[in-house]
Amino acid sequence: MLGAAVFSLLSLALPATAETVVGVYMFSRHGDRTSKSTPPTSLTNLGYQQVYHSGSYWRSRYVDGNATSKVLGLKSDIVKQSQIAVTAPVDNVLQNSAIGFLQGLYPPVGSDSVQTLNNDSTVAAPLDGYQLIPVNIVSGGTGSGSEDNTWLQDASGCANAKSSSNNYFSSAEYQEKLSSTSDFYTNLYPVVNRTFAEDYMSFKNAYAIYDLINVATIDNASSSIQSSNLLSDDTLYQLRTLANAHEYGLAYNASDNKRAISGMQLAGEILTYLNRTISSKGANKLGIQFGAYATFLSFFGLSGLADTYMDLTGVPDYASSMAFELYTDADTDSFPSGDDLRVRFLFANGSASASNAPQVFPLFGGTDNSTSWADFEAKLGAFAVRNAEQWCTTCGNTTGTCAAYSDSSTQDVDGQKSGSNGGISNVVAGVIGAMVTLAVILGLEALVLALGGFRVVSKKSLGVSPAGSSVAVKA
């Protein structure tokens, strides 16, 4: 859904100087799928092909023996599992897209897959040496079932993100579009009346309406789309443009950015993986994550990309991908020092290929095609959510796994937890409260004993209990 103009204007040539890529973190959208309005959503054959071709392109850049930007030490033909980490939410479209992508990245190895056993017999792997690469679940479950949700924040599980996104519906921008497009959506009702009620036809549901029609125009014969005469090129363009505005408004806002939680979490995962690449001297080489389009939009907003390149406020096309390359400006066989490391950001709108090669975009409002690792880590770290506690605090969640990080404290200006007990911490206040309660109970017990004519004697003297214990008996 992103315009093509930005890519012709910003086709920044990749450096021809000698350099060495030592690690990469990638994020990709799924391929073509069925409509969200007819769940369960599933990957189509076209979508499978799109992610497969994208994986094949990135193989030619990072993995193949003759790759243009070969990752230092990365196995070219038979995958070494410790060098690659692949993740996706619990979602059949995203999980299957990841599997299809990996088939292009590491294709079957044919005769190289034959194993010789101890008894000298041989066993060939199925499917001409098809390579099995695990797709792990994204930690925290963020985005689970996202392709069955019209509004992606419904799948995030982040309370503050949902609340922040809901604020978009009370904004002046939203209200203006809701009013000005009323007739436009009403006139399209004959196209979608088998799926949506007439009162559903408004800018409030801009993406769901666009998605249903867009899927139909891709996957169905034109003769099977009812009232297709209403779908002129201008109408389809307006549907797409309005859906872009709607989804970007839900995914990012500079003054209320908690709705960008998916972009924050992606930033944390990028930093965590690339830091492991550095600390392990390149043992971790290639991290790949599959996710929904809202993560692209959130990240583009948080990183300043959307401020510079307006086309990046639009929903990325199916099988779009972005990569963060950790490299050094030297041709070397050894892992460089941290001071020599730089990061370059690339983005391909739609399935990456020789004819749709990823383009370099300067990050953080800058003009350089790359940034030092130290600068990248600091600027990305300013909004990154790296662990469960940060996620729970940012989201305001207090139940489930977040209960471990929840108490009655608030955050002071330095981000430190403080209570409301006159400067006494919650833990100390709790201990004092328990001691006071115990004293009251003991006082009442003494009063009952005195008034009732009881006295305390040792159980040992009664011969009925272990030594040292006492009971109250009638005097």
TrEMBL record:
Query: Which InterPro entries does this one have?
Result: His_Pase_clade-2 (IPR000560), His_PPase_superfam (IPR029033), Histidine_acid_phosphatase (IPR050645)
Q: Which GO terms describe its molecular function?
A: phosphatase activity
Q: Where is the signal peptide?
A: 1-18
Give the transmembrane region(s): 427-451
Q: Sorted alphabetically, which keywords does the UniProt record give?
A: Membrane, Signal, Transmembrane, Transmembrane helix
Name of a matching Pfam family: His_Phos_2
Q: Which family does it belong to?
A: Belongs to the histidine acid phosphatase family.
Protein's recorded name: Phosphoglycerate mutase-like protein
> What is the native source organism of this protein?
Pseudovirgaria hyperparasitica
